[in-house]
TrEMBL record:
<keyword id="KW-0496">Mitochondrion</keyword>
<keyword id="KW-0458">Lysosome</keyword>
<keyword id="KW-1133">Transmembrane helix</keyword>
<keyword id="KW-0735">Signal-anchor</keyword>
<dbReference type="InterPro" id="IPR000073">
    <property type="entry name" value="AB_hydrolase_1"/>
</dbReference>
<dbReference type="Pfam" id="PF00561">
    <property type="entry name" value="Abhydrolase_1"/>
</dbReference>
<feature type="transmembrane region" description="Helical">
    <location>
        <begin position="12"/>
        <end position="37"/>
    </location>
</feature>
<comment type="similarity">
    <text>Belongs to the AB hydrolase superfamily.</text>
</comment>
<keyword id="KW-0472">Membrane</keyword>
<dbReference type="GO" id="GO:0032281">
    <property type="term" value="C:AMPA glutamate receptor complex"/>
</dbReference>
<dbReference type="GO" id="GO:0047372">
    <property type="term" value="F:monoacylglycerol lipase activity"/>
</dbReference>
<dbReference type="GO" id="GO:0031966">
    <property type="term" value="C:mitochondrial membrane"/>
</dbReference>
<protein>
    <recommendedName>
        <fullName>acylglycerol lipase</fullName>
        <ecNumber>3.1.1.23</ecNumber>
    </recommendedName>
</protein>
<dbReference type="InterPro" id="IPR029058">
    <property type="entry name" value="AB_hydrolase_fold"/>
</dbReference>
<dbReference type="GO" id="GO:0005765">
    <property type="term" value="C:lysosomal membrane"/>
</dbReference>
<keyword id="KW-0443">Lipid metabolism</keyword>
<comment type="function">
    <text>Lipase that preferentially hydrolysis medium-chain saturated monoacylglycerols including 2-arachidonoylglycerol. Through 2-arachidonoylglycerol degradation may regulate endocannabinoid signaling pathways. Also has a lysophosphatidyl lipase activity with a preference for lysophosphatidylglycerol among other lysophospholipids. Also able to degrade bis(monoacylglycero)phosphate (BMP) and constitutes the major enzyme for BMP catabolism.</text>
</comment>
């Protein structure tokens, strides 16, 4: 009987001990969902072996994550899109081999990278800052593979045009900056914004859980079921930065930046791969054809049942396509080297 009581007491003590972290977890979800989101990113960075580092240059600080070390294969630099951050790439990095040297940087003013004046947020301004980062971490000791999505794709394309000797190959994922012949749902929103003199809410800068859900519907063809608490957490995380996001938005839709990639694409000499979601409602998939007409040798991969958020909707497929393209290019280089020796 005493033994039975000891067992009962053990379960009571164990139950009480477990109840505390469980209740704390439930409370954090309900009361501080933004904290849970930060823990989520921390957990996945740790799980995937990504380390957070800072690079300082003349009073300007870049925040980035990296995995692996520079080796025989080209390093990979990944540039995220508007109002996002370096952790955008976690879903893709998950499917990339651990021996590759991967660097994911917060774009100028985003997340942990310094915020300064608006001239840094134009496409050309961001290109200059990213080049500063590349030089600071000495990524350009040998040519590297550059990947960019959305706004980051616009920046990546202009970077490759301006600093062609630093790029061995590149991947653009649904890049901004192209005059696509077909209008999208977002183009219609943009026209309404212009007619209202930008007094209407910007769809890519949500301020409520409902607007956050609308943004996901706009950017993603895949319908993710996201709990209300998580939507609220995402809003809370972004809310302090919304004024900054508005500044950046006004810069990248301005006349000097809106079609920057279009104006520079003919100067790209590195082998180019373009990945695009066929159901993109932000930047129409016809932009891929525009790029291919200027650079006929580029590889184009169009993804079925996929929207603008390719990295989130098709991370495994995206990683596989990047690796396939890199392998193909390395094989071609080796073949050319063999032919030259012969």
């Amino acid at each position: 009987m005493a033994a039975d009581l000891d067992v009962v007491n053990l379960f009571i003590i164990a139950g009480g001990t477990l109840a505390i972290p469980i209740l704390a977890f439930v409370a954090s979800v309900l009361l501080w969902p933004s904290a849970l989101i930060k823990v989520y990113y921390w957990y996945w960075r740790r799980t995937l072996g990504l380390q957070v580092r800072y690079a300082d240059c003349g009073g300007y600080r870049f925040c980035y994550t990296y995995r692996g070390k520079p080796g025989m294969r080209p390093s990979i630099l990944m540039l995220h899109g508007f109002s996002a951050h370096k952790d955008t790439w976690l879903t893709v990095v998950k499917y990339l081999p651990k021996h590759l040297h991967i660097v994911c940087v917060d774009m100028p003013g985003h997340e942990g990278t310094t915020r300064t004046n608006t001239e840094d947020y134009s496409i050309q301004g961001q290109v200059r800052r990213i080049h500063q980062f590349v030089e600071t971490v000495r990524l350009n000791r040998k040519p590297f593979h550059l990947v960019g999505t959305a706004m980051g794709g616009n920046v990546a394309g202009v970077y490759a045009a301006c600093y062609s000797s630093e790029i061995c190959s590149m991947t653009l994922i649904c890049p901004d900056g192209i005059r696509h012949p077909c209008e999208t749902k977002f183009d219609n929103h943009l026209q309404d914004l212009e007619h209202s003199n930008y007094t209407l809410n910007i769809p890519l800068i949500p301020t409520t859980p409902e607007e956050m859900e609308d943004m996901f519907r706009l950017c993603s063809h895949v319908r993710f079921k996201i709990p209300q608490q998580i939507l609220q957490g995402l809003v809370d995380v972004r809310q302090p930065h919304n004024t900054f996001y508005q500044e950046v938005f006004m810069e990248i839709v301005g006349e000097n930046s809106r079609y920057a990639l279009q104006e520079h694409v003919h100067l790209i000499t590195a082998p180019l791969q373009v990945i695009w979601g066929k159901q993109d409602q932000v930047v129409d998939v016809s932009g891929a054809t525009v790029i291919a007409e200027v650079l006929p040798g580029c590889r184009v991969d169009l993804l079925e049942n996929c929207g603008h958020s390719v990295v989130m909707e098709r991370p495994c497929r995206t990683a596989k396509l990047i690796l396939e393209n890199k392998s193909r290019l390395i094989c071609n280089v080796n073949l050319n080297h063999h032919d030259n020796k012969s």
